[in-house]
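Action item from last week, closing it out:
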Amino acid sequence: MRFLTGAALFCAALFLSATRPASAGEVTLVPREDGAVEIGGRLLGFDGEVYRLDTIYGPLAVNAAGVTCAGAACPGAQVTRIALSGSPALADMLMPALIEGFAAARGLVVERGAEGRDRLFRLRLPDGGPLRAEIALASGSTGEGFADLLTGAAQIVMADREILPEEIDRAREAGLGDLSEPFRRRIVALDAIVPVVAPDTRLGDLAVGLSQAALLGLLTGEIADRSGPGGPEAPVTVHLPGQAGQGLRQLPEARVLGGRSPVASARRHGRAAAVATAVAADPTGLGLARVSALGDAVQVSLADGCGTRLLASHQSVKTGDYPYVAPLSLYLGRPRLPRLARDFLDYLATPAAQIAIRRAGFVDLLRDEIPLGRQGDRLALAIAEARPGNGLRELKRLVATLGGAVRLSETFRSGPRGPDARWRANVAALAEALEAGHFDGRRLILAGFAEGSGGSEASAARARREAEAVRDAIRAAATAADFDRVRLEVAGFGDLLPVMCDGGGSKAGPEQSRDRPSGDWARWLNRRVEVWLR
């Protein structure tokens, strides 16, 4: 379809015949500027910004800002309808909270209803004023959301996982373009997959946490009984999300299993929250739940062989220092959406929206600052893991570089295919802050870290290259930034300051996740670029 505005539109109008026979749905677009030529045609649609007309020369798109519409078929006050479909992780709690916040920010009231399987949110002016928009939420699964997108039943997919290769192919075949393009995905909030047990669990003393080998063994049935100090030997009942007889591939929980099959006797539950509820009532239960929906279930920490334990906290999820972070995203069916839909997407980046995200139980995307003094566990581990010889000297260099600085929550870890959605989102966030002058007069230090292999010098060189790649990406994105006002530095610290020690993970079985590379928890967590500000 051709899209015409301004002078080009009215030049094109000279060729439209004034003798075109009138028919149902005919309208005339009258220019607001005197002397310009009117355009007539059959109205195909209007989204509040653009009229689409069928003319004798084919379809035209006309910007509503320059014309007024005349004719019985002219639309009245436009009611925008937005249909979203997908994961209940977004549809049940997160999106309703954000819709309410968006409406309040625009001075609208929300009326809730239902339409078939959809939850309907009607946005109108107060005191019974005109209806402005209808937002429909269909809660099923991420896969069902992409299916609805293909049939036209939804414009936006609510996803708790990355789009699968076959879904990309089907969308392309349906004429929707490449949904894997970065601009087609918006990360809204963060969640995490965590192992959980009952408060009165009989599975031994889990205060020490579960190693990767133990967690995989329990989930796959290789470890059928669990015992330890404070508890007798007991058979383990595994609880997982999803329908019975279906694999986990369509769920982010599949990342924990790394391509391996769960035990055949695992009990399945339709919702992630139902997993936590079932486990909380089962003293021999072990499940995979979402940190946003723990209920009465108790999260079990992830342990290495050095005494380090990781919990999915607000900070560890936001920085990615917990291995099973699950970004919650919106996939846009078409690059151009109605104006109100675009306004809603813009609202998601506001502080008000981030507060609503946190209140709904999810991890927001606001930038946090973490002082070096709060890195005590990592510094202790760094000292314990320091290499003989120049290890202490390198630690002193790290403290001298980062002392007095604060770590920002943006952290870069590449996926198996290179930079992933969170990597790119962090680049965009830092570029925007640089362009706005938030870091003027300060030093922004990109500190690269690597897994402990290849020797300290090789690790430091590899870590520095990763930091330089991040720096180059930020510079390329921050086209309006004044880099004379901020110092953007890189440093490579190799295997110093590990998140977990490299000796604690299990290498049993290949890692099949699309979200992170092969290897154990420690290797992937330790290979990163942190952002420090001083």
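Closing note: The chain has a mean pLDDT of 84.
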